[in-house]
Amino acid sequence: TARSxxxxxxxLLASIMMxxxxxxxGLSARSAVLxxxxxxxxxxxxxxxxxxxxxxxxxxxxxDRARSDGWGWRVTAVRSLPFWAATAALLVVRRxxxxxxxxxGEAGGxxxxxxxxxxxAVVSFGHWFWPAGLAIDYAxxxxxxxxxxxxxLAGVALAAAVTWIAWRRDRRLGWCLAxxxxxxxxxxxxxxxxRVTLYxxxxxxxxxxxxxxxxGGIAAACARSLxxxxxxxAAAAAGLVAVSVGAxxxxxxxTAVWVDxxxxxxxxxxxxxxSVLGHNNRGIRLASEGRFAEARAVxxxxxAIDSTLASTHNYLGTVLxxxxxxxxxxxxFRLAVFLAPRNSEARLNLGKVYERQGQPEAALHExxxxxxxxxxxxxxxxxSGAILDAQGRLTEAAERYERVLAVDPSDDGVRASLxxxxxxxxxxxxxxxxxxxxxxxxxxxxxxxxxxxxxxEELGRSExxxxxxxRSAELDPEDPAPHFRLGVVHAKRGAWDHALIAYERALExxxxxxxxxxxxxxxAEQRGERRRALTHYAVVIRQSGETDDILRAxxxxxxxxxxxxxxxxxxxxxx
Length: 575
What we know:
Elements: H1 3-22, H2 29-49, H3 56-67, H4 73-98, H5 109-127, H6 146-169, H7 171-183, H8 205-225, H9 230-258, H10 261-271, H11 276-288, H12 292-305, H13 310-322, H14 326-339, H15 344-356, H16 360-373, H17 378-390, H18 394-407, H19 412-424, H20 428-441, H21 446-458, H22 462-475, H23 480-492, H24 496-509, H25 514-526, H26 530-543, H27 549-562
């Protein structure tokens, strides 16, 4: 678990170690530069692994001041510049990719966010010494009261004072404490993003390293000061073993809770009965098992605890939609969007419910609003594309499908829809480019080969078209369409023998298809088989309806030309 935290911590430690190696006395200029470069490279690896590594420049400064043998702050600042540059580069790239993700939207504004940041720091420090739970924020109130605020401020002040005193007395111990507080600075940003998930153990792994060093140093100092009597040493060893066994037992017990997802959340609820996250995860589990009525009750109970959480309204709306209570589902999704206007999942679900109710315009409106905020949202692009496709707005639909594939080239369902839309737009070359990868990935799908054959036929690539239609016919022997298209391609090539065989194979599968009869008659006529042609023309005349006047007229004209008995060219179906 928390692999990114573990890896980022390892890279940061490597960076600090190489930085320390670069400032030792007696090094050549070349060795110092190479070691400093290695330190920056390790730091970049940490930044690329987890954003919490943005504290690296501050840790470099703290370390440099702890190691100082007389060099001033200016030297320390200059040495830290490459690390600041690496961190700034990460932040620039992050902003370009994700945009702004930190906002001040919940009750209390900056003051409450700052108080929660202080609470995270103080409580996390205590949890390294007394691990009460896997995480402690499952049921934190969304607003900190005045009494708790005073306690938090007192704790922060005490921590600052102790750290300062420790630094003045022993820079090694002070460095460890300063490292811990600095490492928690990224966590302090969390309250500005959400009040729901604030503190979890893995977010302070980096700080735990410093506390382990501090405790180890204190333990070593105590061990050196102990009398040399065997009984004292035996008692100290027994105490160390007891602490170690206790720590291992606590870790095993806590890890056992993480083994099973359902067990994890039920354990959280046993400790924090008012945990909205716990109830929501229970509801999600029940919904995944198809127990929608129970899930609905759980989500409604969660809303009774906290009605301001948009995600809970979204979950409830999803369950209500599954139960076909569409009006209630729409109300819940709308409330979720009202509470969190950029909640893409709730707005997407709202559009889906409108689609189920047969309101494509309302659904399209929601998808458009979602895409205004998140232009690369693949589900909204795909679903809006499907609506535009169904409305005949093929150019717009194809543009949406192409945007999906720009985000996720592996979405083959959308690729198939794009290929079909491009065929209807008669953009043959683009259609072939879209469909060809599907034929490679799904060689046993008849529809893919058929559509590929259509594109190749229209591009004048008859051999490739014959191959594609042949594969389609092999894969779906009962479908008349591939045989009909094979006949068309053969006819264009003047291969009337093959064309007639293909048309009659299509008729074996669909004897009522008048166009196959008409084309078979034309092929038979080209081969000089008068009686065979007359037979097919007669079927066209006999079975054509009022909407097939043109086809019936052509068949009657052909029968007259061949000396057969022509049927009426207008009016009702002839006998």
